[in-house]
Amino acid sequence: MTSEPVNIRSIRSRRTVSQNIWRTLKSAPPTAIFGMVVIAFYVFCAAFANWIAPYGEAEIVGKAYQTSSTEHWFGTDQIGRDTLSRVIYGARNTIGIALLTVFISFCIGGVLGIYASVTRGWLDIILSRVVDILMSIPVLIFALMLLAMAGKSVWNLIFILAVLDATRVFRLARNTSLSVAVQDFVEAARLRGEKLPWIVLREIVPNILPPLIAEFGLRFCFVFLTISALSFLGVGIQPPTADWGSMVAESKTLITFGRPQPLIPAAAIALLTVAGNFVVDWFLHKTSGLRDEK
User: Fold this and answer.
1) CA 294 to CA 288: how far, in whole Å?
2) Which residue of 18, 53, 74, 190 has the fewest CB atoms within a 10 Å radius of its CB?
3) What angle do CA 229, 235, 236 make, to 5 degrees?
4) What gap in Å lies between CA 25 and CA 20, rounded to an integer?
5) How far is CA 246 from CA 61, 137, 235, 241, 250, in A?
6) Where are the alpha helices (DSSP H) in the chain?
7) Each residue of 72-108: pLDDT tens digit?
8) DSSP secondary structure code for residue 254 in this structure
9) How far apart are CA 72 and CA 132, in angstroms?
10) What is the mean pLDDT of the segment spanning 159-169?
11) Which residues have C-beta within 8 Å of that of residue 183, sequence separation ≥ 6?
């Protein structure tokens, strides 16, 4: 008998993976489906903002504070820019910066946390004490102070928030990998003479990946809200770059006149946060091994 060709096995393997993914998505609760649809819509708007937005990000297209019309569905802002266009561009700016910040924080905190849990010793003690000190300071106040000293640039914002958020990632990565590093299969790998990178990548990381993925979603929500709060206070993403937090701050006086424009970017912030939490809650429940009671 001839063995099955490699390309046919790979096709069947991919088909099995796609079927498992589809089966998992079909079993998702309505809240998780709602969250995934909302996130997909936001990602679509962020990726194709240049083609979706009717006007440019900083283009002045009318008078200040115009009401809703066929030309400007959400009206205009304080200098005559189209609010709908800036909300669409704000999705790209706010979400993109938040994703980059969380990615950097996981690279810093995750690597240091796993390394500290495996090697232990003086490095683990020093890093843990530094993390304890940084976590004792409120993130928003600390970020305001550091941004006031370093300057209000986007890269300063990303780096400062990434370092501050890496403390939370470090704590989770260290604790989860520490519980795996003492298991028998890790000790057996050491006795076989496996090197540290092999042990980390083949034994520890696969076992701590689900909580890290869930934490990535939660950290994105927190960083996203922090960036919006800093922009609302005037030290986050600076104009003319569109950002939902700064858009709320720029139009907040319209609330006293019964105008809904400040609520539009605020609703965009709230909707994405709720959707992200719905998906993370479902993922945590799915990976925890718990089953719904019938």
Assistant:
1) 18
2) 18
3) 60
4) 9
5) 19, 25, 9, 9, 6
6) 6-26, 30-47, 49-52, 83-119, 121-135, 139-150, 154-181, 184-191, 196-199, 205-233, 244-251, 263-287
7) 888 888 888 888 889 999 888 888 999 999 999 999 9
8) G
9) 49
10) 92
11) none
